[in-house]
Automatic annotation (TrEMBL):
Leader sequence segment: none
Keywords, comma-separated and alphabetical: Hydrolase, Membrane, Protease, Transmembrane, Transmembrane helix
Gene3D superfamilies: Rhomboid-like
Record bears the keyword Protease: yes
Name listed for the protein in its UniProt record: Rhomboid family intramembrane serine protease
GO biological process: proteolysis
Keyword Protease recorded: yes
Organism (species): Polaribacter pectinis
Amino acid sequence: MENINQAVLLIIIANVLVSMKGFNDYSFLDKYKFQVSRILNGEKIRTITSGFLHVDWLHLGFNMYALYLFGDIVARILGIPDFLIIYFGSLLAGSMYSLKYHKDEPYYSSVGASGAVSGIVYASILLYPEMELYLFFIPIPIPGYIFGVGYLLYSIYGMKKQLGNVGHSAHLGGTMGGFALTLLLNPILLSTNKLMVILLAVPIILLLIFGDKLKNL
């Protein structure tokens, strides 16, 4: 990690420290996790603090590894200020989408940096569409956009099945936030990477149109 951007490293450290506190102190986790009823009753800070908490080391490790892989690309291409705008904007977008999707479930709760990381993943693919990834035991490189769309589809499945205490709906909101903010901050991508913009926009548009119907499937 010797070449990692300092802003990315600081966010990873913050996630590790806050998550470790939550692992060992349930009252701390309960006070700062995402919970619909508490947020609607005025505890808006939970929309941000929940993004620095995780359910366990595996959950934390997966998110921080993804941030390490993709965050450095965004920070180096756009600079630290824009990286931070996309990171925290995606985190907030993920929380807002979760709040909208689960508004009738007062006790719904979740934690994780997934919303912010999802936004960063999509941002990095927009900025560097030719990237290829080697993942786990897969011996051939996977195009970054395949990973991005696959991650989004997994999140839709997880949101439908409500898998674990992980904010799958936040993945989706964060993806939308990262996509929109990246194009807003770097609109030239609309012409230079038009095909990639369209490809990544399709599942987002479909989600916006049909997302509310997922609960009834």
